[in-house]
Amino acid sequence: MQNISLEELAGKAKVSKTTASLVLNGKGDRYKINKDTQQRILRVAAEYNYRPNFSARSLTKGRTMTIGLVVPNIADSFYSNIAFQLEQQLANTEYQLLMGSTRENSEREEALINTFLNRQVDALIVATTQKKQAYIERIYNSGIPVVLFDRHYPNSLLPHVIVDNYRGINKLIYHLQSKSRTNIGYIGLELQLDAIKERQLAYNDWMKATSSPDFFRTVHYENYQAECEGVVSQLLQNGVDALLFETHYLALEGIKCMTSKGFHCPDDVNVVSFGDHQAFSVFTPGITVVHQPVARIAENCLKLVFEQLKEGGLQSSGEIILEPKLVIRNT
Amino acid sequence: MQNISLEELAGKAKVSKTTASLVLNGKGDRYKINKDTQQRILRVAAEYNYRPNFSARSLTKGRTMTIGLVVPNIADSFYSNIAFQLEQQLANTEYQLLMGSTRENSEREEALINTFLNRQVDALIVATTQKKQAYIERIYNSGIPVVLFDRHYPNSLLPHVIVDNYRGINKLIYHLQSKSRTNIGYIGLELQLDAIKERQLAYNDWMKATSSPDFFRTVHYENYQAECEGVVSQLLQNGVDALLFETHYLALEGIKCMTSKGFHCPDDVNVVSFGDHQAFSVFTPGITVVHQPVARIAENCLKLVFEQLKEGGLQSSGEIILEPKLVIRNT
DNA sequence: CTGAAAGCGCTTACAG
DNA sequence: CTGAAAGCGCTTACAG
Question: Are B181 and B239 in a shared domain?
């Protein structure tokens, strides 16, 4: 378990550092090092449990084999699932993930990215607060691979993989309509994010097109639990027959409020959510949702990262838009 | 955003690398470097956005300011919350977290730890599969700080922070008894973990002490969803009036099964869970649980890590047992 | 087939 | 007050 250095190892195997390094890196055959010599080096390495010093290697190679992941909140099931997927898909590579949560705070986002950059991460995957466009673009333009996911900057060439938010909400609305619901309440977030705006736009477009009553409401991210309760109660009084939640955690909060007030789902008020959650299939009734393809989001983020890491740079347009899937349960 | 080196920076500021390094590391005053000179260096650093190369610094200092976190599954809400807490508590330090999921596979655990060690992490925080005692002890004994949490090795000096699992289950049982339930079904995991054994022991001790019917059942981790369904149905047929789930995800699965069979909670069958979940307060009725103090677990893990990192080494016994809290809701 | 040497970008005794 | 130099542990042209 002790750290023996390449130099010591070479000494014990009676070869130079060069030879030892070559063999240890699997270049023994290419450099036609004697089989015996190779064996000897490998044996000594095993015997002393040789661990090449990663910092030294990173320093010489100029790569850290590390990717920085920046999300709003790693405790949020969507992001922790993304992290899990990234990690699993990276498991058979040399790459590791460094991660941090911004808590939707842009200062913290910049500090986090800065920290990762100081550590010379080879690439950045970020679900941005969308308040750091110039900063992130500067990084990207300086040659550091960047992939945005979940949130992106619409007027920017920054590579990103997102979901078609507008269509996602549409699917939910159509579904509700197929259940003959017309007074659909919408509970969203007061956040300057395009992902959010798109969702809200879809609802508002539908509202206008159908001259439906305006049951569009938003709450603040920092205080969503309390505000959600207020907004939901009010909507219920207004006589909505369906509630569409913009995110899974809003839905969770809203359902809590609804049932505490004695409203029954789906009879009184039907409930659907943008974004799935482990519990939604457990509820009675099971909550119908639009599901974000977590594995494919992760997969495509890595695809864009590796494209940028390669010689030629990005081959594709850098924009990947995935289709959110309607998962019909009981609501 | 370009990487300018210390040498270049020194050149532009017309000082030696030594002086520049000293000033940049806040040792300017200690070494009585001219105020003017200091200003000049700082100005140049800011102007060229100087980022000291982390690999180089790690190499010279022999520390990477990185802690490796190993958990069974980062997508599990318990572990992602731990990760979030660790990260937040580490936010005002220089430390960063590298993390990986073992998926309860001990080979993967060893590979993961090995990878982290290759990267010279300064410490390891691990929720072990509990099948790698010798390996982890060897690491610990070689001087690398290690803290186990959630799961530990009972006959080992490895520092750990755990929860009193036996008492946790007891609290749940007492609660159920206070609700006049006597036919309590137990759904647990077929895993060789002491945390699990303790929970199961608590139930079995109670069962024997009270001569209660044997409603103790276990399922395999890899296939818990399907098996849980079978076990729960059977228990329901056996006429249990309460179901005690060993983990939050078992509870989630069990509730799904129960309600699909038309059983009503808490009237027909009361349900409680070891381990909380975001949805448990949303369910109707709210699920009573024993809550694991996530923030305090994280806090104590870091306490033990930093103790080991300090000169004198571990000051305390290295064993921290936290009290799980009964959170009474509607069940 | 193998080795001596330079270089990656820092930090830190050691001098003066 | 400041600098020259060694050293951290690797990799990789360059020689022979």
Answer: yes
